[in-house]
Design goal:
Largest interface: A-B, 30 and 20 residues
Oligomer: heterodimer
Structural class of chain B: mainly alpha
Protein name (chain A): ABC transporter
Number of helices of chain A: 22
Number of strands of chain A: 20
Strand content of chain A: 15-25%
Number of domains of chain A: 2
Radius of gyration of chain A: 25 Å
Strand order of the largest sheet of chain A: 6-7-8-3-9-10
GO biological process, one term (chain A): peptide transport
CATH topology of the domain at 102-279 in chain B: MetI-like fold
Organism (chain A): Pararhodobacter oceanensis
CATH superfamily of the largest domain in chain A: P-loop containing nucleotide triphosphate hydrolases
Keywords (chain A): ATP-binding, Nucleotide-binding, Transport
CATH class of the largest domain in chain A: Alpha Beta
Number of helices of chain B: 15
InterPro entries (chain A): AAA+_ATPase, ABC_transp_ATP-bind, ABC_transporter-like_ATP-bd, ABC_transporter-like_CS, Oligopep_ABC_C, P-loop_NTPase
CATH architecture of the largest domain in chain A: 3-Layer(aba) Sandwich
């Protein structure tokens, strides 16, 4: 067995939690986790939020965010214990032996400094090479990572490059001091899928050429399967399973791993359009305020009663703007909306209370969509009072009915949003929308802030409710897997236009137009060698053209 | 046009407009006061005929708007009129007073601004530990004491007991720079103590505000020293609020030093203004008002422009 670069034994990490209204208490974030990483190898750390994966990643730099304490166990880096090293020793290894790539490069780069200065900063700080040499190395890394104009790229400021480029620049920053180990903490999570695939390929190439070892942290098993040699599955701060990539995705031993592998495998057979559409949007064109450009141009879609229409697209495609138009927050410049056979006024103030009631909305961030100072009963009860004038016992009974419908049951009515988990909060938002007995609910990225398993639960709930209540969903998402799970028909949006529109089978069956092809083929699949296959395929295609 | 040129030009134009409005207010303010210059010269017992003659002679019987523009254009050409009390040319008298005031303010600023910013950085470095608390306590105490009291305490300690500095800060043109510096040492020290707390606390708050950012963590994970992280990574992103509070305090050093000048008998603008207010010398009051307004607006303009320039998104658009 080769000598270990990083060896973590029985690591225990604790933090003091200051919950509102309670005494500060000690929480165990990571409990008894061990891992071993050899030089040049890539280990994937996977788990849902709260699994402690980022915390373990940062522990490899002996760093704890906020009040986190590395309270027990051993962290051996290059043969020496670093958990209890002095701050001088730690400064010596951070940025030299171990470097870090953060989730959001947009936030992790200093907006006031040029990229080059930041990329070579650690290299210069540790006196690893003279400035000219470091700059030459940075340019070389920019080239390896396929950044545009590598010679002058470093002269730009962070706001002058795109999100995907910034994430690659961050990788260059991590590799510049020739570290032994790089911690990648969800490096592609904040990116669009079509960007993610390029960044993923760039990172993989850079790791391979530099021979650096890496800890790759993500919640997306399909992504980590493309870059890692081994995978560790974590849950609630404990190790669930450890194995090679192949073993984990092909023969998972633990139930939890099996659940992660089979996530997004909801079998939903599409319903075909029938009768009159509940919502018909025709030729919608819209722009914001004084902008000179239309954000939506000539968008026409139909949504049928009791069915789901998915609007799919990347950031900036206009899908959320479409939701704003339908809800009346942004009156369209051109085009008409017909709701249940009657024309629907474009502006919110022109709509009747009845029209408002029939059209409800669920948001991406459940925690900011609820008043933190109101109880769940107040939150769900508000539409009952507003639309149906329900009070007292009648209202309470209906609130409980709705809580049952979202599978929360007894005892939740008197709680506050802060006492609920992310998935439970989103369920409450669903109950609030249902309380108005709407015919249409607009779901704006309702599962994107949730962990995959929790998101699956929400999708299943939405499907059940649709079957029971006959409500239609306009489902806005960037995630193709979610679309497959819930949609009856799909509109693919690109640069404010509908690129492709039809039933789910029609849209997801070839032949594709170029954009849909790019979009669909960029979604990571849970199999070995997927990344190489897609890239090879794309190379052949472009060579063929 | 580069967006930054446009923004800066806008600010400059706005500053000029503001200055114009201030001049109108100053002029109106002195007009509303009971009595006028003629009354002031001739005194309470003057006959109506004498007053009328005097007004005609001084042009005071013309409409206010005519007099305003005459005053403004003269002021723009550097002619601030003649003082009523002693008949001297105001521009000449003010020039030496203003020089003295600016000298005192500069000495106080050169000490207090770097010190406040350094203490701010230092307080962030040792946040919630004893150096931070000590700095907070001392600066808070100094800002809580009235200026004159602080002035007399300094005078008692450093002039009377220790005899390090003179208690009266008289200066004249024949003194060397060092002699002048020695003369203003005590008032400059008091002013420093007065403005230090405000600037230091704002610096601390502005930097703490960006210390939560992800790029601070990035810098720490590069192995940088904590003080370097604060000074090189946090500070450049909090320049705008810091510059604003610094300029506000610099303005105070110029226009708000009346009390200190009186305590140390320093021949500056503040004393000059107070003397002539008590003598109802309207042209001098107007002139002082105009100069104070110019300095105040000018310094805030500088703060605005520096804030704009410190934003890389504006300096380097996409």
């Amino acid at each position: 067995m080769a000598e270990a670069l990083l060896e973590i034994n029985n690591l225990r990490i604790e933090a003091t939690v200051y919950a509102p209204g309670e005494k500060p208490r000690n929480a165990v974030i990571v409990d008894d986790v061990s891992l071993r990483l050899e030089p040049g190898k890539v280990m994937g750390l996977i788990g849902e939020s709260g699994a402690g994966k980022s915390t373990i990643g940062l522990a490899a730099l002996a760093y704890g965010r906020g009040g986190i304490r590395l309270s027990g166990g051993k962290i051996m880096l290059n043969g020496r214990e670093i958990r209890r090293a002095s701050s001088t020793e730690l400064r010596g290894l951070r940025g030299r032996e171990v470097t870090y790539v953060a989730q959001s490069a947009a936030a992790a780069f200093n907006p006031a400094k040029r990229l080059m200065e930041q990329v070579i900063e650690a290299t210069l700080k540790h006196n690893l090479m003279p400035k000219t040499e470091a700059e030459a190395r940075a340019v070389e890394l920019f080239r390896t990572l396929s950044l545009p104009e590598p010679e002058s790229f470093g002269q730009r400021y962070p706001h002058q490059v795109s999100g995907g480029q910034l994430q690659r620049a961050m990788t260059a920053m991590a590799l510049c001091p020739k570290p032994d180990l790089v911690i990648f903490d969800e490096p592609t999570t904040a990116l669009d899928v079509t960007t993610q695939i390029d960044v993923l390929a760039a990172i993989k190439t850079a790791i391979a050429t530099s021979g650096v070892a890496a800890l790759y942290i993500t919640h997306d098993l399909a992504v980590v399967a493309q870059v890692s040699d081994e995978i560790m599955v974590l849950r609630g701060g404990q190790l669930v399973e450890h194995g090679t990539v192949q073993q984990i995705i092909e023969e998972p031993r633990e139930d939890y791993t099996r659940a992660l592998v089979s996530v997004h495998k909801i079998d939903h057979r599409e319903k075909l359009p029938e009768g009159e559409p509940i919502l018909r949007a025709e030729g919608i064109t819209a722009r914001y305020g004084a902008m000179n450009e239309d954000v939506l141009s000539d968008v026409s879609v139909d949504l049928y009663a009791g069915q789901t229409l998915a609007l799919v697209g990347e950031s900036g495609s206009g899908k959320s703007t479409m939701a704003r138009v339908i809800t009346g927050l942004l009156p369209p410049r051109e085009g008409t909306l017909v709701f249940d056979g009657n024309p629907l006024p474009g502006a919110l103030k022109d709509r009747s209370r009845e029209e408002l009631r029939q059209l409800q909305m669920i948001y991406q961030m459940a925690d900011v969509a609820m008043n933190p100072r109101q109880t769940i009963a107040t939150i769900i009860g508000r539409p009952l009072e507003f639309y149906f004038n329900m009070r007292g016992r009648e209202r309470d009974a209906r609130v409980q009915e709705l809580l049952d419908a979202i599978e929360l049951g007894e005892g939740y009515a008197d709680r506050y949003p802060a006492e609920l988990s992310g998935g439970q909060k989103q369920r409450v938002c669903i109950a609030r929308a249902l309380a108005a007995k709407p015919k249409l609910i607009i779901c704006d990225e309702v599962t994107s802030a949730l962990d995959p398993l929790v998101a699956d639960g929400i999708l299943k709930l939405l499907l059940n409710l649709q079957k029971r209540e006959g409500v239609a969903y306009l489902f806005i998402t960037h995630d193709i897997a979610t679309v497959r799970a819930i949609a009856d028909s799909i509109a693919v949006m690109y640069q404010g236009r509908v690129q492709r529109y039809g039933t789910k089978t029609e849209v997801l069956t070839p032949p594709f137009d170029d954009y849909t092809d790019l979009l669909l083929s960029s979604v990571p699949e849970m199999e070995l060698g997927w990344l190489e296959r897609v890239l090879e395929h794309r190379r052949m295609e472009s060579a063929g053209n | 046009m580069h967006p930054i040129v446009k923004l800066v030009t806008q600010r400059l134009a706005l500053g000029l407009l503001l200055l114009f409005a201030a001049s109108v207010l100053i002029f109106l303010g002195t007009q509303i006061l009971p009595g006028d210059v003629a009354q002031a010269i001739l005194g309470q017992s003057a006959t109506p005929e004498a007053l009328a003659n005097m007004r005609a002679e001084m042009g005071l019987d013309r409409p206010a708007i005519t007099r305003y523009f005459e005053w403004l254009f003269n002021a723009l050409q550097g002619d601030l009129g003649t003082a009523l009390s002693n008949g001297r040319d105001i521009t000449e008298s003010i020039a030496s007073r203003l020089t003295n005031t600016l000298f005192l303010a500069s000495v106080a600023a050169v000490v207090s601004v770097p010190l406040a910013i350094f203490l701010g950085l230092f307080a962030v470095r040792f946040r919630d530990r004893w150096p931070d608390r000590l700095i907070s306590a001392i600066t808070l105490t100094s800002i809580s004491l009235p200026e004159f009291l602080l002035g007399y305490i300094m005078m008692y300690v450093f002039a009377v007991k220790l005899s390090w500095f003179p208690s009266v800060s008289t200066i004249n043109d024949s003194m060397s720079f060092l002699e002048k510096l020695n003369a203003v040492a005590l008032p400059a020290l008091v002013l420093t103590l007065v403005v230090l707390a405000h600037m230091m606390r704002m610096t601390r708050a502005a930097i703490l505000n960006v210390m939560q950012s992800a790029y601070i963590e990035t810098a720490e994970l590069k192995g940088l020293r904590r003080f370097n992280v604060i000074a090189r990574h946090a500070m450049p992103n909090s320049i705008a609020p810091i510059v604003n509070v610094v300029m506000l305090n610099l303005a105070y050093l110029v226009v708000g030093v009346v009390v200190i000048e009186v305590v140390f008998v320093y021949p500056g603008m503040g004393q000059y203004l107070v003397d002539h207010v008590s003598k109802r010398d309207v042209p001098v009051v107007q002139a002082c008002g105009l100069i104070f307004a110019t300095i105040y607006i000018g310094l805030n303009l500088v703060a605005d422009v520096v804030s704009i320039l410190s934003n890389p998104r504006l300096r380097h658009p996409k």
